[in-house]
Amino acid sequence: MNGNVFIIGLGLIGGSIGLAILKEHPDAQVTGYDIKPDEMKLAKALHAINRTSSSLQHDAEQADLIIICTPVNETEKLMNSLAAFNLKPDVIVTDVGSTKKNIMSASHVLTQKGITFVGGHPMAGSHKSGVSAAKAFLFENAFYLLTPGDSADEQSIDTLKNWLRGSKAKFLEVKPEEHDHITGMVSHFPHIIASSLVHQVKQNYQKQPLISSLAAGGFRDISRIASSNPSMWRDITLHNIDTLKELLMEWQQEMNRVINMLEENNAEHIYAYFSEAKTFRDEMPILQKGAIPSFYDLFVDVPDYPGVISEITGLLAKEEISIVNLRIMETREDIYGVLTISFQTEEDRKRGAECITSVTDYDVFTV
Ligand SMILES: NC(=O)C1=CN([C@@H]2O[C@H](COP(=O)(O)OP(=O)(O)OC[C@H]3O[C@@H](n4cnc5c(N)ncnc54)[C@H](O)[C@@H]3O)[C@@H](O)[C@H]2O)C=CC1
Ligand SMILES: O=C(O)C(=O)Cc1ccc(O)cc1
């Protein structure tokens, strides 16, 4: 496609969207604006945009598509600024915010003026922020939720999907209330739980400093998202506070149920509790493919000897299988082995596993 795309907010998500658009539509003019000039320069250097903006108003007025990729409270303010500009009458304005109810309400300043607004939320990302962590394939196979405003017709929604085709995401239209309730449950609420677990460990840390070195395995998996950008999550929490309060009340009841179960001291009931959760989670479509994961991890149970990493990377390089990340666990407590290799696609992960198991005795696992 050809036209002027204007991305406001060039962090992890804005940068990833820019990369995906330019990959699919190399003739597009993608201009980027950020309050941090260094982030703008870096976005250009990384080819996430092909032009930096020196005037929000000027570039917004030239745009055929405006994508607001800022924290959600800034997005609301930016919509007010955009409403005061002389935007092209057929411009499409969209956002990527993790909440939708407040944003859709705030978008009325635009829709009242006849501007098309389609709310958006790519359901993939990372605990990292900033354009340096942006990836063109961040949203591959992930759901990309859309909440079209009242004035958005089918043609504008199709045009937006075409612009975003390079993301390889799966688009799904939902109502803003439904959006906030579902994402509250599967994304926002887990953040509170992850942070609360870290707080609990922190409180115990005073008495048992060894705890921080031994907090591997389950704790590491469940607490990763507590390392996310706190200001972004503050804003998300403030936008979805009622849903979160409701979920926390339900959680308190659930924890009371667990306390009662433990007091009962009944092995069968404890087994059933874990087993029912396992069955339900194992059947969840998110684990089959896509949805939340934005990378494809392979765990390799390698022995701890010098040169083992170069042996594995050498095998993969010989088969021309690209890897995006490689990590060594600091302890062997993790049942999946000490080496984690992240691939760009499911196909690469499959080939990587086949390549490693065909030449070595190392066990490989996926989750
Ligand atoms: N991080 C994630 O995994 C995901 C985040 N989101 C949503 O995407 C949005 C952006 O998140 P990230 O890219 O992760 O954050 P980020 O912190 O990496 O990037 C945000 C960028 O917006 C810029 N910015 C802030 N206020 C601005 C303003 N008024 N004008 C211009 N630029 C401004 C910041 O300088 C920063 O570079 C948020 O609304 C978040 O809820 C959605 C899906 C996943
Ligand atoms: O790091 C993770 O796994 C995330 O939770 C990423 C994420 C953050 C915010 C969203 O609205 C959607 C996905």
Automatic annotation (TrEMBL):
Enzyme Commission designation: 1.3.1.12
Coiled coil: 241-268
Catalytic activity: prephenate + NAD(+) = 3-(4-hydroxyphenyl)pyruvate + CO2 + NADH
Top-level taxon: Bacteria
Alphabetized InterPro entries for the sequence: 6-PGluconate_DH-like_C_sf, ACT-like_dom_sf, ACT_dom, NAD(P)-bd_dom_sf, PDH_C, PDH_N, Preph/Arog_dehydrog, Prephen_DH
Enzyme class per UniProt: oxidoreductase
PROSITE patterns linked to this entry: ACT (PS51671), PDH_ADH (PS51176)
GO MF annotation list: prephenate dehydrogenase (NAD+) activity
Biochemical pathway: Amino-acid biosynthesis; L-tyrosine biosynthesis; (4-hydroxyphenyl)pyruvate from prephenate (NAD(+) route): step 1/1
Prephenate/arogenate dehydrogenase domain sequence ranges: 3-292
Domain ACT: 297-367
Keyword Coiled coil: yes
Protein keywords: Amino-acid biosynthesis, Aromatic amino acid biosynthesis, Coiled coil, NAD, Oxidoreductase, Tyrosine biosynthesis
Keyword Chaperone assigned: no
UniProt record similarity statement: Belongs to the prephenate/arogenate dehydrogenase family.
Protein name: Prephenate dehydrogenase
Species in which this protein is naturally found: Jeotgalibacillus haloalkalitolerans
Lineage: Bacteria, Bacillati, Bacillota, Bacilli, Bacillales
